Amino acid sequence: MTLHVTNTLTGETEPFEPQDPEHVLLYYCGLTVSDPPHLGHARSWVHVDVMHRWLEFIGYDVRHVENFTDVNEKIVARVGEDDLGEDEADVAETYIGRTLADMRSLNLLRAEVYPRVSEHVPEIIDLVETLVEKGYAYESNGSVYFDVTSFEDYGTLSNQDIDEIESQGDPDERSEKRHPADFALWKADGVDADAVAEHRHEGVDHGGDPPAGQTWDSPWGEGRPGWHIECSAMSMTHLDETLDIHVGGRDLVFPHHENEIAQSEAATGERFANYWLHCELFQMADEKMSSSLGNFVTVDEAVDRWGTNVLRTFLTAGSYNSTQLYSDETITEAEERWDQLERAHEAAAEAVDSPDARTKIEDEQLRRAVSTARDEFRAAMNDDFNTREAQSALLSIASAANRHLEADEPAVGDSESESESEKADEDKGYDYRGLCQAVDALEELGSILGLSFAGDTTGSAALAGEVVDLVLDVRERERDSGNYERADDLRDELEALGIEVQDTDEGPTHRLPSGEKE
RNA sequence: GCCAAGGUGGCAGAGUCCGGCCGAACGCAGCGGCCUGCAGAGCCGCCCACCGCCGGUUCAAAUCCGGCCCUUGGCUCCA
Predict the structure, then answer these.
(1) Is A426 annotated to bind ligand?
(2) Which of A233, A256, A279 is the last residue of a domain?
(3) Average pLDDT, whole number, for chain A?
(4) CA/C1' separation A91–B42 (Å)
(5) Structural domain of residue A503, as residue ranges?
(6) Residue that finishes a domain, picked among A231, A261, A279
(7) Max CA separation in chain A (angstroms)
(8) A16 domain residue, yes or no
(9) The model's pTM
(10) DSSP 3-state percent helix, strand, coil across chain A (nearest 5)
(11) With 80 as the cut, is the pLDDT of residue A483 above it?
């Protein structure tokens, strides 16, 4: 079974075949760095990250490029706010730093390059010149527009009819365009002050008139790159004229991706991307999540609140290409799933390390379950990165391991006699081979979803763990002497701190609050 | 208006491409039991679905075909 992906270009699920059998060229349309990233961005990032990890897991060398749009009127609009900086570049820099930190906190694999528009203006100008020379673009009043009527396939990605498309871009440029659907490749002069004003936050003192934003010299005079040309220029610079996979949010299909295809293919005569994958968006329980409504949760808030593992479990709880409901309930459910995985992993790992671990009871079932789950995981991921199914496979390993640990009396068949099971009871032990396989599978497959079972065993977390153990020792003594009230108080107090206490046959165990920082 | 996606149990969410193993996965919630000083966790079992509506094809449809109703998103910056 090979990897199949749903290609927006065809609307079909197709077998994935990169141009080079060993390498995959992956481009992801990154952020405009004018605001802190929110959970919606995180959802796409995580899914792209899972794609990246899975492609590597099945043997490809992935060349992953993700841009930062650091030239944009929305960024100019932030100039003067708080301590974001004194000009467009400063603001962009601030947000790029913040974005990279957010990405790290989500345990994302790094892209190979994070190119920025401001560093690729010469390439952009070259590309625009080529388009003008080939007759796909025209200069008008110092700006350059792409002539959509000159590109036969315009509209295929988004299934649009050119005549149905309403004007792109701001009203001022309409008069300069031959066709309403034509879009800007290069814009004369600085940013439009009105556009900047429109994106400014209300009630914030920006200190005077909006700055013009950076401009560059070009064959058509001073100006700035248009809104779509950057991705074409940067992906060609860092990858190739033809990409294997181009990913982005569903909301970018039109006009952004449509325009990317037109300008790229017109310029090179080559197919721009073989597979277009689109990440679906969040749906809020009552309304949509959007910047304008201000109802989004920023990535750093979410990581603080839920922790990386819970968040990633949540974000991969649906397919990348289906919308996902965001609500307290759905995220709590994800937390529940993660807890289950983590507890099972911990129990299995502990059992493996314990002195009781030895081949004693039949673990054929466990081993079969692990192996089946691995197959299911692989099949799920190969089926258009079905992360929800993949989670199911993980959970089935967890419950198989739990079942095995539970059966520390050889209750595996139904035919034992009483005396046999009594005898075994005194002699109980775990078969560690199956458990080892379960632990390995959880770690290995979990890591493909970016989940990490490696608890924080360093620094303050380790110390905290020791302190909790100390408290639990005290509590055990209270319990031994029948002083349950006092013991329960201790448990309640630990619980109030987010520390989960469980009494087991082997003594009490605890879990520190997962992922919460500090 | 145009384009797209989708309507599956109390919730959430796979399965729909390649019709039968789907009387429908996994999880949450609920119920009963085991275990436990209690709780939690875990385990076992149960409960809950005529798969939006109508019609068609077929030995067989959640899955294919036709019609209808409804929801969401995009068409302006947007992951």
Answers:
(1) no
(2) A279
(3) 86
(4) 51
(5) 458-518
(6) A279
(7) 96
(8) no
(9) 0.91
(10) 45, 15, 35
(11) yes
pLDDT in tens, A103-131: 999 999 999 999 999 999 999 999 999 99
Q: Which two tokens stand for residue A433?
A: 């081979």
CB A37 under 7 Å to nucleic chain B? no
Q: Which segments of A158-221 are extended strands (E)?
A: 183-188
Q: What is the 3-state secondary structure (H, E, C) of A207-254?
A: CCCCCCCCCECCCCCCEEECCCHHHHHHHHHHCCCCEEEEEEEHHHHH
Chain A residues 230-289 with Cβ under 7 Å of strand B are: 248-256, 279-283, 287-289
ipTM for the predicted complex comes to 0.94
Give CA A116 to chain center in angstroms.
20
What values do phi and psi take at A502, rounded to 5?
-130, 135
Q: How many domains does chain A have?
A: 2
For residues A517 and A286, give the distance between their C-alpha atoms in angstroms, rounded to a whole number: 30
CA of A449 to C1' of B35 (A): 33
How long is the CA A331 to C1' B27 vector, in angstroms?
12
- DSSP-derived 3-state class of residue A313: helix
Which bases on strand B have an atom closer than 7 Å to a protein beta carbon? 1-6, 11-15, 17-18, 25-29, 36-44, 72-79
**Strand B contacted by A324 CB (< 7 A):** yes
Q: Is A29 annotated as a binding residue?
A: yes
